[in-house]
Every structure is written in structure tokens, then in C-alpha cells.
TrEMBL record:
Family: Belongs to the UPF0060 family.
PANTHER family in alphabetical order: UPF0060 MEMBRANE PROTEIN YNFA
TM segment ranges: 6-26, 33-54, 60-79, 86-104
Topology relative to the membrane: Multi-pass membrane protein
Stated name of the protein: YnfA family protein
Natural source organism: Paenibacillus enshidis
Compartment(s) where it occurs, according to its Swiss-Prot or TrEMBL record: Cell membrane; Endomembrane system
Pfam families hit by this protein: UPF0060 (PF02694)
Record key words, sorted: Cell membrane, Membrane, Transmembrane, Transmembrane helix
Length: 107
């Protein structure tokens, strides 16, 4: 399970970081190479996600969606300096519960 968590975190950082870099390039007028780096990060996200240990593509991506939400709240807090409110935090907790339900081993 530790490997799965690590891969989810790595994929999330690549996806959110890649999207952030492209945002900086296109929306904030930053240098073009930030957009290129963002594109590369997004490609790496697609590759990293395939290393998951779970066999179902749909289940992996559904669970990753919950992890993505939590990481996005953290990114907004740490990088954009936008502190989450109680609704953000409760939403993140609910998402993590959903992830746990989806990935619980079945007999």
C-alpha cells in the first residue's frame, strides 16, 4: 500500500505542477519554457500513473481523483498561499474516505 500512496503522490505532483506551470505561462505571461516544462510534467504524470499496483484503470483513476483533490487543496495552501477553509478541509476528508472505500481489498 505504501507503493500505491507514493505513486499517487508522485502522479499528483506531476499533474498539478504541470498544470500550474502551463497556467503561469499562458495566464500570467511567464516564459514559454515554463509551459514546455509543464507539458513534460503532464506527460510524466500519465506515465507515472501506469505504475499503480491496482489492475483496474477505472478504479485507479477514480481513486486518484480523490487524491488529486486533496493535493490540490495542499498546493493552493502551500504554493498559492490560499488557506483552505473548513469546507475545503471537510471536502478533502470526504474524498480520502472515498479513496479508501474504492481501494479496500475485496475478497
Amino acid at each position: 500500500m505504501l507503493k500505491a500512496v507514493f505513486i499517487f503522490l508522485l502522479a499528483g505532483i506531476a499533474e498539478i505542477g504541470g498544470g500550474y506551470l502551463i497556467w503561469q505561462w499562458l495566464r500570467e505571461g511567464r516564459a514559454w519554457y515554463l509551459g514546455l516544462a509543464g507539458g513534460i510534467a503532464l506527460v510524466l504524470y500519465g506515465i507515472v500513473a501506469t505504475f499503480q499496483v491496482f489492475s483496474s484503470f477505472g478504479r485507479v483513476y477514480a481513486a486518484y481523483g480523490g487524491v488529486f483533490i486533496v493535493l490540490s487543496v495542499c498546493w493552493a495552501w502551500l504554493v498559492d498561499k490560499k488557506a483552505p477553509d473548513a469546507y475545503d478541509l471537510w471536502g478533502a476528508v470526504i474524498c480520502l474516505i472515498g479513496v479508501a472505500v474504492m481501494l479496500v481489498p475485496r475478497t
